[in-house]
Structure formats: C-alpha cells, structure tokens
Specification:
Number of helices: 12
Pfam families: DHDPS
Order of helices and strands: HEHEHEHEHEHEHEHEHHHH
Distance between the termini: 64 Å
Organism: Streptomyces fulvorobeus
Largest sheet: 8 strands, parallel
EC number: 4.3.3.7
Strand order of the largest sheet: 1-8-7-6-5-4-3-2
Radius of gyration: 19 Å
Protein name: 4-hydroxy-tetrahydrodipicolinate synthase
Binding site for pyruvate: 65
Oligomer: single chain
Number of strands: 8
Strand content: 5-15%
Structural class: alpha/beta
Length: 312
C-alpha cells in the first residue's frame, strides 16, 4: 500500500492555556556573559532557576533584555534550548524571534521543536514598514508555526488596530500582543480597534507603564526588573489583578528611579542597569555587548543603592 507523505504540522486547537499564561509578569531574562565574552551558561541557568523559584511562570528568551540583537544565530538557539530545559514544565516559554522572514521562521520552528509553546515576533528591523507589509511579515511567521501561539511586539505608534485584526483573521494562533508604544490612550484605542477581548494585551514597557495600561485593558506586563527582584514585580501584578491601584503605585514609587535609569536617553542603559544590579548582588557579571556599554563607575553605586532598598 502506498503511503501518502504529509508535512502538515498539528494545529493547537485550544489556545486558552496560552492566553492565560500571557496574562502575567512576562519575564525577559538577561543573557549573562563570561569573562571571555561567551555566554555564561552556569550563571544563566542559575538566574533562570532564581526566576522560577521566585514565582515567575512565563519566560521570554531572546528578548531585548536578553540582548537579542547582539547574539549570533547559534547563541540564540542555545539560549532557547537552555531556557526550555531549565523551565522544565514549570513555566511557559515564549521565544523571541525576528530579523528577515526566513530567519524568523527558522527560529520559530526551532523554538517549537525544542519545546516552546509560543513565539514573540520582534518588530521588523527595516526603515520602511507599511501597514500591509507589517501584516505580511507576521503572517509568514505565524503560518509557518500554526501549532504555536504568536505574540507580535508592537513599537510602531502609526500601526492601526485593524492590521492586527486582519492578521488574526488569517492566523488564529496570533493570540496576544506585547504593546510598547509609550502612550496609554493610544494603547486603549488600538486594543479596542483590534478587539479588546480577542487578544491578551501585555504592557510591553514594564512596571512604570503597567498601571496605566492595565487601566485601559492590559492583563499582563513584561519585566526586566524581575531578573533582580521577582517578588517586587509579582507584588505589582497581584495589586493590579485586584484592582488595587494604590498598592500598585506604592510598588511603582519604589522602583521608579531604577526604571528611569533604564529608560534614560532612549533606553541606552536598559540592559546595562539590570546587569549592574545583578552584579551588585553577585549573581552575574555586568558585561554587555555593543552597542550597549557598562555603566561608568560613578553610576554603579546608585544602582546598588536602589536594589538594596528592595525586598529581594
């Protein structure tokens, strides 16, 4: 009997668990480097275990806090595999993918084969992005991995909600959005134009923006600070879930200066400040890769002082 070969991938029918996983503190782990500049896998595993032991339940390897654009393709694959291995079923893994379409598709397929449940698609790195082209880019990736949840990372304030709606019409595995335009009113309008209940909305600008974005529809937020103090980030999430904005803003006040240091000069020291904090705790080296740079000596004490005031 002739057997008909098929290369079709199984399609995940019930996306509810993945949507529930996104409505949380979406941790963006750092990628620690050894003295010789390679990835410090021992420190990396220890930092991931610290996040998991601290209550984190969703991890995003190859995010911007993980220095995605400074890693080689082989390193990005290694980070994906290491994170999935350490998660060991204790957390959902949302792998960052991007660059040109073939590279992003290959990374998304690798993530699925390695055991990830979702991919986050970094914004297209191109000086000329049309709205229809944005949809085409994400459709090509989402259609290549129908068994995975897909989460676009939106930083373009000119993108309309209808583009996301059109994308999801053809790709039902597009289930959530990491929205990182620093404008809560714009976010509220975009979410409603795209379909507020249709997607899980993740505040993509971390703790400083989480309260205002939750007030307009978000149910999760990303965090780099969580690498340093998981309990602080989770305390904000608990308050926001309860609708206790007074308690949430107390956390906001506590971490405000730390996050302002990260955001200064168009986030020039976004990763640098997090790694400096981890170095002050003896958890990894402060090294970052160009075009980031370590903090000057004069600023390191301020970061250490900020962290010393938290409940780590």
């Amino acid at each position: 009997m002739n057997q008909q070969h098929t290369d079709e991938r199984p399609v995940r029918m019930d996306l509810t668990p993945l949507k529930a996983a996104l409505a949380d503190v979406v941790a963006i782990p750092v990628t620690p480097f050894a003295e010789d500049g390679t990835i410090d896998t021992t420190a990396h595993r220890a930092l991931l275990r610290r996040l998991l032991d601290g209550g984190v339940r969703i991890l995003t390897p190859n995010g911007n806090t993980g220095e995605f654009y400074a890693l080689t393709p082989d390193e990005r694959r290694a980070v994906t595999e290491l994170t999935i291995e350490e998660a060991g079923g204790r957390a959902t893994v949302l792998v960052g993918v991007g660059h040109d379409v073939p590279t992003a598709v290959a990374a998304a397929r690798h993530a699925g084969e390695a055991g990830a449940q979702m991919v986050m698609v970094h914004q297209p790195v191109h000086p000329y992005v049309s709205q229809d082209g944005w949809t085409d880019y994400h459709r090509a990736i989402a259609e290549a991995v129908p068994e995975l949840g897909v989460v676009p990372y939106i930083r373009n304030p000119l993108l309309g909600g209808e583009a996301l709606s059109d994308l999801a019409d053809s790709c039902p595995n597009v289930i959530g959005v990491k929205y990182a335009v620093p404008d809560a009113a714009r976010f509220g309008a975009f979410a409603r134009d795209a379909g507020l209940e249709r997607f899980v909305w993740v505040a993509g600008l971390a703790e400083l923006y989480a309260p205002s974005y939750f007030a307009t529809g978000a149910t999760g937020f990303t965090s780099g600070l969580v690498n340093v103090a998981p309990g602080v980030s989770l305390a904000m999430l608990e308050a926001l879930r309860a609708g206790d904005y007074v308690a949430a803003m107390k956390v906001w006040e506590q971490i405000r200066r730390f996050e302002e240091l990260r955001a200064d000069r168009q986030s020039a020291n976004n990763v640098t400040v997090v790694k400096e904090a981890l170095a002050s705790l003896g958890l990894c080296r402060r090294d970052v890769r160009a075009p980031s740079r370590v903090l000057p000596e004069a600023q390191r004490a301020e970061v250490a002082d900020q962290v010393a005031g938290w409940s780590i």
